[in-house]
Amino acid sequence: QVQLVQSGGGLVHTGDSLGLSCTTSAPTFSILSMGWFRQAPGKNREFVAAISASGASTTYPDSVKGRFTISRDNSKKTVQLQMSSLKPEDTAVYYCAARTGSTTRVDALEYHYWGQGTQVTVSS
Length: 124
Hints:
single chain; mainly beta; four-stranded antiparallel β-sheet; globular
């Protein structure tokens, strides 16, 4: 079982930056690909970013490309999401996710483990 623990998040203003972190004690972290998703009230869960197990490959949707950066440190078993130029439409609960596979995926159904979620609110 892989447990993911998230930290970060909070209330910021339009244009601000914010970072999220996700950590695990799982010994298999270095072979897991990781992703970040978000869910706003009344909306479906939305893909935000993904990174391969090695960290060599990343994927973003157009809605966050150039503003969000996903990174990982396999020695510390952490994955981070750095968000900049935040907009009110970025407001959502953000989830860290892991899958037993080395490549990036954008479909939430392909992820096996999930963090507890953390609220990000961007005020205008």
